[in-house]
Design a protein that fits this description.
nine-stranded mixed β-sheet, about 25% strand, alpha+beta, FAD/NAD(P)-binding domain
């Protein structure tokens, strides 16, 4: 039997697993290679997987007693911070309870391993149950190229050949650079560091603390004092019996201000609101992970060439425009679209860029690139000093005045607001901000 694969997928993260699931269901002969001992072993990230693509890959996943997800999101919160106070926009709705869920919290080591098991089930049910494989604990050293076309991969002394390769290696995209689709150096101001602690509570205590019912959960983003003047923001997600608490901060700004990720996270935890939340919790994990800033300029030159497609974090597909941190959903959709393109190429018998360019067309037509392109101004606006510092300080100042009751005449709200504006910004700055926000959002 021909030992050449239709496709080799590099990376067992969300993008690689999504692509592999689609390939297996389409009776394609493929090899998924993951450098960890199991899918998810090397992945320390986590957060919210938005959208319903998971239901397309694993129908009725929510019915599994021990699924790979932690909780579904039915409570959204955006919090502005100064050194004393927090002022939150809070939204909770029963419409989030409808299935398939529009957001589920995941811990990637658990989720990726679970989804890998689902891929294996799809392989076992395919025509290539004995010829398609998930190979773990293997590092890909090189994508094999002949006359500008990918023909397989090399790992150690071994070579594996295929008609196509999907590179889903993650943000440290060495292979994407090797094949010439990414510059050797991505500027530090286009990259961020995510720092996270997993803090455990008794499950009943956690559910009471956050007013959770069953497997409902909450996502909370923080802007302002959380990062101690370094560009970025904070997050909190509720898992089954833990919370994920952390920051996403600019690498360049952190380096220039001579701050360490660990120091910034400890600073965040000293805030009165956060200190109350984590009281009596047990830290069970600390991790850090490099992510894209969501700036489209960090993306590779192109996402395809003869025999090659780039998906997920390797393509720097991520965005935070202030509403949510989106990355895993982009990775999943890009993996699905990459696999669909490979399936079409197999039917045509043509794995050249003439066919594989359809992947870029599919991605451009999807919500992924439409949102990345449409909200670039919002991404840039979120990282300005006005949004990072002045607005949170102003909002919290106003909140302290508005919600404090004294035995003395109470000023009108307008006077309180104008006073807060005067102390922290200017009316002109806010007018400019409002104009930009209207255009960007």
């Amino acid at each position: 039997m021909d030992d050449k694969f239709d496709c080799i997928v590099i990376g067992g993260g969300v993008a690689g697993l999504a692509a592999s699931m689609m390939l297996a269901k389409a009776n394609m002969k493929f090899l998924l290679i993951e450098r960890g001992e199991f899918a998810g072993a090397k992945n320390v990230s986590g957060g919210v997987l938005w959208g319903n693509d998971l239901a397309k890959l694993v129908p009725n996943y929510w019915e599994e007693e021990d699924g790979g997800w932690e909780r579904f999101i039915n409570h959204r919160r955006l919090t502005f911070m100064d050194e004393q106070s927090t002022f939150s926009l809070d939204f909770k709705s029963s419409h989030f309870n409808e299935k398939p869920y529009t957001g589920v919290v995941v811990l990637r080591s658990k989720f990726d391993n679970w989804l890998s098991g689902k891929v294996q089930e799809a392989i076992d049910a395919s025509d290539y149950a004995m010829d398609s494989f998930i190979a773990t604990n293997i590092k890909v050293d090189e994508v094999l190229m002949e006359n500008g076309k990918a023909v397989g991969i090399k790992t150690g002394e071994d070579e594996f050949h295929a008609d196509s390769v999907i590179i889903a290696e993650g943000v440290n995209n060495l292979l994407t650079r090797q094949v010439g689709l990414q510059d050797n150096y991505v500027p530090a101001d286009h990259m961020l560091t995510g720092i996270k602690e997993i803090i455990r509570f008794d499950q009943e205590v956690l559910e009471q603390k956050f007013q959770l019912n069953g497997l409902s959960g909450m996502s909370n983003e923080f802007v302002g004092w959380a990062t101690d003047g370094v560009e970025g923001g904070g997050f909190l997600y509720t898992n089954r019996d833990t919370i994920s608490l952390g920051l996403v901060v600019g690498i360049k700004d952190m380096r220039e201000k001579k701050r360490s990720p660990h120091d910034l996270l400890n600073h965040f935890k000293t805030h009165p609101t956060i200190a109350d939340i984590i009281k009596d919790g047990e830290i069970v994990e600390y991790s850090a992970h490099v992510v894209s800033s969501g700036d489209a300029r960090a993306m590779p030159k192109e996402l395809y060439k003869d025999g090659i497609l780039i998906a997920g974090e390797a393509a720097n597909l991520l965005m935070n425009a202030g509403k949510a941190i989106q990355g895993m959903d982009y990775a999943m959709r890009s993996g699905i679209l990459a696999a669909e393109t490979i399936i079409e190429a197999k039917e045509k018998g043509d794995f050249s860029s003439a066919t594989l360019k359809n992947y870029r067309a599919k991605l451009d037509q999807s919500y992924v690139m439409k949102d990345i392109n449409n909200f670039q101004d919002a991404v840039h606006l979120l990282h300005t000093e006005t949004m990072q510092k002045k607005v949170p300080n102003l909002v919290c100042d106003f909140g302290r005045q508005f919600f404090t009751i004294k035995n003395e005449p109470t000023p009108k709200s307008e006077k309180m607001l104008l006073g807060a504006i005067k102390r922290h910004a200017s009316l002109w700055e806010l007018l400019k901000l409002g104009f930009k926000a209207r255009k960007s959002l």
